[in-house]
Amino acid sequence: MTWFFKLNVIDGPLPLTIWGLTIVAVIVVLIRRPSPAWLWRIVIALAVGIGGGAVLVAFVNTSHAFGPAMPYACWFWVPAGFAAILLGIVSLWERRVWRKVVAVLVVILSLLSTTLGVNAAFGVNTTVGSMLGIATDDKIDVLPKPVPTETTSGPLYESWYPPADMPKTGETAVLSGSHAIPATGGFRPRDAVLYLPPAARTANPPRLPLIVMMMGYPGDPDATFIAKALDDLAAKNKGLAPIVIVADQLGVTKSDPVCANTAKYGDVPAYFNTDIPAYATKNLNVLLDHSYWTIMGYSNGGACAFTWATHHPDIWGNIVAISPDEYPGVEWRDEAIKTLFGGDAAKFDALKAEAGIAENPGKFAGHLAVFTVGGADPGYIPGTKRDAKRAEDAGFTTTFHEAPGADHVAGALNTGIPFAMELLYKHLGLSAP
Q1: Angle formed by the axes of helices 224-236 and 410-428, to 10°?
Q2: How many Å apart are CA 242 and CA 210, to the nearest integer?
């Protein structure tokens, strides 16, 4: 079944087939001799479906039930899907058995089409597996053994000469079983995903920079977007790229622990700032100088990244935030304070980057900070700008980038990650400045 979970659900044959079958099935139930009762059923089904779908999208957008506003395409997919589903339901009153069967198919196909359409509008889950929260990367068999610490001075792009048999692309693999990253603070993360660039897959690889990345909420550890960006850059830079761990800040409950240590979810900061660094140092062929280490996140993960970059400047030499939440728990602040901190707002505020900056004055010189946000993501632009200003004032070498026309979902990732990686490459010596 692995092949099924790897099927593309954005623009591959699977969604196109489902959408095509749905259209055919809807046409079949509509082709019949009309009667007043039948016409009224159809009109009511379409009106209720379209109206109800539009109300649902409006409610989700205004209540922020799933974080940011739904993509514009959802204004089509949800009302159209609801209308088609109700059309199938009211067609169950047909006398002929075959028409009842087609009506059932309309309901099923419309559910699938709507789900695939909404997923494609977000564009973050690219396979069946990622939609279902099932990792589709192969589980890693053997971790490359770390080589002795590099002694060559100067940037890697000058000193590294790739062998002729170096792979053209990197590889991703799930860190599970005996290779899983142990969590020691009661937090229960899902398996992380490892990305090894082409240079890391050679017989005598160089030690490489490290990125620890987090995706958003709701979401899964998924290396798809960063692997593509780094493969593209590696192809232009002798196969060089950072080694990446895409780790889980949400946990097996897929909740939002607000990047904190709480009785309910366990010690998330310990996993990222103690367990993962210890694992990477012991098991991965990464540079041991922490100025080459980057904490990175998208949306919810971006809030965690900025928080930990400011609280642990000795661990994280750089920070990349792609369309970040302004601070952990910003979307449900009052409820988070109540349920996770017993009403203690001071404990909640201690999570913020401002607190980390205040604890570590003067410790961010030479630390790169890159903040990106989509130009079509108005809800996130002000907060991202404020975060970038905080980083700049704290002493980070800061860049803020607003990608024209990009939204908060796939657009943010497809524009923000390549932009940030270009800057990070130059900063880390993986490409010429």
Answers
A1: 40
A2: 5
- Kindly state the helix (H) or strand (E) to which residue 303 belongs, with its residue range: helix 300-311
Query: For residue 218, how many C-alpha atoms fall within 13 Å in the half-sphere facing its CB?
Result: 13
Q: Which amino acid is at 116?
A: L
Report the interhelical angle of 36-63 vs 74-90 (nearest 10°).
150
Tokens representing residue 428 in the block = 């880390």
Strand-pairing partners, residue 174, are 139, 193
Predicted local distance difference test score (pLDDT) of residue 389: 97
Say if CB 207 and CB 154 are below 8 A apart: no
Cβ neighbours of 359 (radius 10 Å)? 13
DSSP state of 164: T
SS3 61: helix
DSSP letter string, 91-131: GGG-SSHHHHHHHHHHHHHHHHHHHHHHHHHH----BHHHH
The closest of 65, 81, 84 to 73, measured between CA atoms, is: 81
Three-class secondary structure of residue 161 per DSSP: coil
183: which residues sit within 8 A by CB, 6+ positions away? 189, 266, 270, 271, 275
Contacts 24+ apart (CB under 8 A), 273-279: 273/308, 273/311, 273/312, 273/315, 274/184, 274/185, 275/181, 275/182, 275/183, 275/184, 275/185, 276/181, 276/192, 276/212, 276/245, 276/247, 277/315, 279/181, 279/182
Bridge pairing between strands 293-298 and 210-214: parallel
Beta bridge partners of 368: 318, 397
d(CA 282, CA 268): 20
Cα-Cα-Cα-Cα dihedral of 388, 402, 125, 306, to 10°?
0
Give the SS3 label for residue 403: strand
**If the chain, 433 residues long, is cut into consecutive pieces of 10 residues, what is the mean pLDDT of each piece?**
75 89 93 85 91 90 70 88 93 85 94 90 78 70 68 81 94 92 94 96 93 92 95 97 97 93 95 97 94 97 98 98 95 90 92 95 96 93 97 98 92 96 96 88
